[in-house]
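agent: user wants the structure for 4Fe-4S dicluster domain-containing protein from candidate division KSB3 bacterium. delegating to structure tool.
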Amino acid sequence: MERTSPCFLREEEDNAPSIFTDLVEARVRPARQAVHVSCLLSINQEGSLMNHVLLLQPEHCIDCHSCQLACSLKHEGTYCPAKSRIEVLTSPLKFSVPLTCLQCEDPACAAVCVVNALKKNQETGIVDYDQDACIGCRMCVSACPFGNISYDRQAKA
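agent: tool returned. relaying tokens verbatim.
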């Protein structure tokens, strides 16, 4: 019986053909099966790329980090969990939980950002991040009530 991924990408149009299948095959501990994350991008009928929504299912998390790989590929163009917008926390009891931004109604991270590197998009409701504007002060890390913001020392953002 194959386990399903703790995260998957839902297409905005159901019948659009996938251009990536089995995009990420995570290397996991030998006792676990590989988890596949498919359908990162799809093409609609007019031939343009469609947007997707990443859905996390913490109850299915097996600590494989495939959600981080898919996220970093989509947003950064590279397989690098450190650049992912998802953090997987693992307890000493081997209980894992994927965390991501909860897109707060009134985001504390954006309120404390003195350079507006984090701001809520009024049209979409999404908290946007401008890495070029970020000065690395880490006030947003302290302000997030859920602890869902991490600091990348290499990128200094």
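agent: one observation worth passing along. Residues 1-44 have pLDDT under 50 and may be disordered.
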